[in-house]
């Protein structure tokens, strides 16, 4: 199972369990909380009624006054109120008064007058000077039929002479409880959904970051040129930096060893030629022969210098994982500059140059590397083009890239050599001198083209050889 999915599943499990326990705890607290708030209101109401009814109760005139009619009228009122969006069309309080013996003397419902309520906690405890309250079901089999009762003492000079009880059915509170529960469930589900979405995004981001590092490590192990992923701070940036440093150290060590072996192998021949010529020059020989050996030493020294310089240039390009700058380079101006630099050799061989590159066509990359790469292609073409031959430069836009072509009139490249032309140290003999080059020019061109995200191809065409380069 991918790491990102495992992280998300653990996160989802944590969010789910946390959401369940939090919602379950809050849901269990809603109903008691509403009832506690209601009970507090009933306490205030009962004590208010105890003060209002005290004088009439002491005088024993509760039933002779208008209190029964007032309480009956109160029970018939229709408020027509909207409380937080819920309608309230009837009053739900029941008020009854008992004497010091617990006998009901006044009841807003009119059904309990004369009954003995002394056994109920709201009356029994209040008459004893304690807080009296109870919750009783009207239907023993129906939990939703419970009614809260809160009693308040009627006092005469500090002596309890009666009790006022205010009752409210819990069913009248149920719509508010249900609405609160629905809203809480909706908000809870929304928060859990947002938490899961955040967890999914976090898991995707983390797994994507790790995949980028994995792809980078795999690309490096396969020898591909890849850029190290960039992160903004944190452990991922430190990990990417550490991996890049490890790659640099490991590749640098192997790279140095490989190039030492390569340079040693390639320098054997010119060094042997120079040493042989130097040994012969120590003896007596005709001036003409001496001059020939001196020329050999000079040419082999130049060959060694060219080999070292090209190896250094190639090593610099091969070690880089990306471009240091990306600027617009006018292609026509770049080719014209290269042709001007080689004007002496072009005129000496009486070559015909055709340059039809549009002046507004540009490449995106490093000017120095592009000039070196195209310069190597031109040098190669000049070596193989015969006297009075043709060089043709063309270019056109191909989607997001520029297709650059260099044609030079020459003998066809042998089929066996075509796949090896950009191979390091592989070279074909020049038609004029029969000598081979360092075999590093086309390899350098290929590395520069790859560094720019392009492609290089070389093939035979009618009348000569054509190099095609695709660059951004």
UniProtKB/TrEMBL annotation:
The protein's Enzyme Commission number: 2.7.13.3
Subcellular location field: Membrane
HAMP domain ranges (all copies): 204-255
Superkingdom of origin: Bacteria
Keyword Membrane: yes
SUPFAM superfamilies: ATPase domain of HSP90 chaperone/DNA topoisomerase II/histidine kinase, Homodimeric domain of signal transducing histidine kinase, Sensory domain-like
Keyword line: Kinase, Membrane, Phosphoprotein, Transferase, Transmembrane, Transmembrane helix, Two-component regulatory system
Record-linked CDD domains: HAMP, HisKA, PDC1_HK_sensor
Transmembrane segments: 6-27, 184-206
Keyword Disulfide bond: no
Reactions catalysed, as given in the entry: ATP + protein L-histidine = ADP + protein N-phospho-L-histidine
Name under which the protein is recorded: histidine kinase
Lineage: Bacteria, Pseudomonadati, Pseudomonadota, Gammaproteobacteria, Pseudomonadales
Gene encoding the protein: creC
């Amino acid at each position: 199972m991918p790491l990102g999915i495992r992280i998300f599943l653990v996160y989802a499990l944590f969010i789910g369990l946390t959401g369940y326990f939090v919602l379950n705890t809050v849901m269990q607290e809603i109903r008691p909380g509403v009832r506690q708030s209601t009970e507090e209101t009933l306490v205030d109401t009962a004590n208010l009624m105890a003060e209002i009814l005290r004088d009439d109760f002491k005088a024993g005139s509760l039933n002779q006054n208008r209190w029964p009619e007032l309480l009956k009228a109160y029970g018939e009122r229709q408020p027509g109120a909207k409380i937080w969006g819920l309608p309230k069309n009837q009053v739900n309080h029941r008020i009854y008064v008992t004497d010091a013996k617990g006998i009901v003397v006044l009841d807003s419902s009119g059904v309990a007058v004369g009954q003995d309520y002394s056994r109920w906690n709201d009356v029994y405890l209040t008459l004893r000077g304690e807080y009296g309250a109870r919750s009783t079901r009207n239907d023993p089999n129906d939990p939703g039929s419970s009614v809260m009762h809160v009693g308040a003492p009627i006092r005469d000079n500090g002596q309890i002479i009666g009790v006022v009880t205010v009752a409210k059915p819990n069913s009248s509170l149920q719509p508010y409880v249900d609405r609160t529960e629905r809203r809480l469930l909706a908000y809870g589900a929304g928060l859990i959904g947002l938490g899961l979405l955040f967890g999914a995004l976090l898991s995707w981001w983390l797994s994507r970051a790790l995949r980028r590092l994995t792809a980078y490590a795999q690309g490096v192990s396969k020898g591909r040129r890849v850029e190290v992923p960039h992160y903004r701070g944190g452990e991922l940036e430190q990990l990417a930096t550490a991996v890049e440093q490890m790659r640099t150290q490991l590749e640098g060590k192997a790279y140095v060893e490989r190039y030492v072996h390569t340079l040693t192998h390639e320098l054997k021949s010119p060094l042997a030629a120079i040493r042989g010529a130097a040994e012969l020059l120590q003896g007596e020989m005709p001036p003409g022969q001496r001059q020939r050996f001196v020329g050999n030493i000079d040419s082999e020294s130049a060959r060694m210098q060219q080999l070292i310089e090209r190896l250094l240039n190639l090593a610099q390009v091969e070690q880089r994982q990306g471009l240091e700058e990306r600027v617009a380079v006018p292609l026509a101006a770049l080719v014209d500059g290269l042709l001007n630099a080689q004007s002496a050799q072009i005129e000496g061989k009486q070559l015909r140059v055709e340059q039809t590159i549009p002046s507004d066509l540009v490449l995106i990359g490093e000017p120095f590397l592009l000039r070196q790469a195209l310069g190597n292609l031109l040098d190669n073409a000049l070596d193989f083009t015969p006297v009075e031959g043709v060089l043709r430069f063309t270019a056109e836009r191909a989607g997001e890239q520029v297709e650059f072509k260099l044609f030079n009139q020459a003998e066809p490249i042998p089929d066996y050599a075509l796949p090896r032309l950009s191979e390091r140290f592989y070279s074909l003999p020049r038609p004029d001198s029969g000598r081979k080059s360092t075999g590093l020019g086309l390899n350098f061109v290929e590395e520069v083209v790859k560094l720019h995200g392009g492609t290089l191809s070389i093939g035979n065409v009618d009348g000569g050889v054509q190099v095609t380069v695709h660059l951004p």
